[in-house]
Design goal:
single chain, 303 residues, alpha/beta, Arc Repressor Mutant, subunit A, D-Maltodextrin-Binding Protein, domain 2, 3 domains, eight-stranded mixed sheet, two-stranded antiparallel ribbon, 39% helix, elongated, transcription regulation
């Protein structure tokens, strides 16, 4: 499994706490016992053979089922302990983590939390390869290998330069936005896909901008609007740290306002079920009440 995950003998050996010759010998011994080749060593990175893929998939299932034994025992004892590895997208991490993490670790002192900011595609890859236990991202995804649990619906707001004509409006409509006026995140961020989809639906996906700058974070988008002319969209949780002057640049939308659906995702063959349950409960408890209500105006992601 480690060699399949990392596709490199040296890295896989390190992760398994053995030497590279030892790992190579053990895999060769297994191949001889099974009478098939599990990996094609003639390619770099090494890749599993067709037969190897099936064997590896079964090995993953076996180890997941084995890991559930400890989960069952802890549940019977009323214990909640262990480690949970969480991947969270960058447009959620700075605003959502401070809401739920302090209270979560205070309640569950025997649980070690490992958090990592990752793009959606990286979270899904790591879930499928047992490198993460949980992901927090924007859905729905429609991936048959992934289980999604809805957490909340987060509205978008516009962040408008004081030099822009939209600054004079108190409340905006989606059709007020034009792509060539918007500062956007880089390719690969699901929020970019949402914003572009919203503008296309409004028929405002035309025109060329003199400057095209694709930012890597929401904080950069805010600075661009503050120092230049233009507009960007912010998820509402990002407003918590704004000062009075910055709040004056925020414009809400008429109802139904654009929102995104935030979900907790796990692999279908989930192991740490109880840990994920209490994690989702803590997150839902900490977000504003209005975000907990069902909202039909969801902007679906197209990855």
């Amino acid at each position: 499994m480690a060699l399949d995950t990392f596709r490199h003998f040296g890295i896989a050996a390190e992760k398994c706490f053995v030497t590279q010759p030892t790992l190579s010998m053990q895999i060769q011994k297994l191949e001889e016992e099974l009478g098939i080749l599990l990996f094609d060593r003639g390619k770099q990175p090494v890749i599993p053979t067709d037969a190897g893929k099936d064997v590896i998939a079964q090995a993953r299932r076996i180890l997941k089922e084995s890991a559930k034994i400890k989960e069952i025992i802890n549940s019977k004892k009323g214990l909640l302990e262990g480690e949970i590895k969480i991947g969270i997208i960058p447009t959620l991490a700075p605003y959502l983590i401070p809401l739920f993490l302090p209270s979560f670790i205070k309640k569950y002192t025997s649980v070690k939390v490992i958090l990592e900011e990752l793009k959606t595609e990286d979270i899904l890859y790591r879930l499928k390869n047992d490198l993460l236990d949980t992901g927090i991202l924007v859905g729905p995804l429609g991936d048959p290998q992934i289980h999604e649990k809805k957490l909340f619906y987060e509205p978008f707001v516009a962040y408008v330069s004081k030099k822009h004509t939209l600054y004079k409006k108190k409340i905006l409509k989606e059709e007020d936005l034009e792509v060539n006026d918007l500062w956007l995140l880089q390719e690969g961020h699901c929020m970019r896909s949402q914003v572009l989809k919203m503008c296309k639906a409004s028929g405002h996906d035309n025109g060329d901008s003199q400057v095209i700058y694709e930012a890597g974070s929401i904080e950069t988008l805010k600075k661009l609007v503050e120092l230049n002319q233009g507009v960007t969209l912010l998820p509402e949780l990002a407003l918590a740290d704004l000062n009075a002057g910055q709040r004056g640049m925020v414009r809400y939308f008429y109802e139904p306002e654009p929102v995104r659906e935030v979900v907790l995702v796990t692999h279908r063959n989930i192991v740490k079920e109880r840990l994920n349950e209490v994690l989702s409960e803590e997150i839902i408890a900490k977000v504003p009440q209005k975000m907990k209500k069902d909202n039909p105006n969801i902007i679906n992601i197209e990855l």
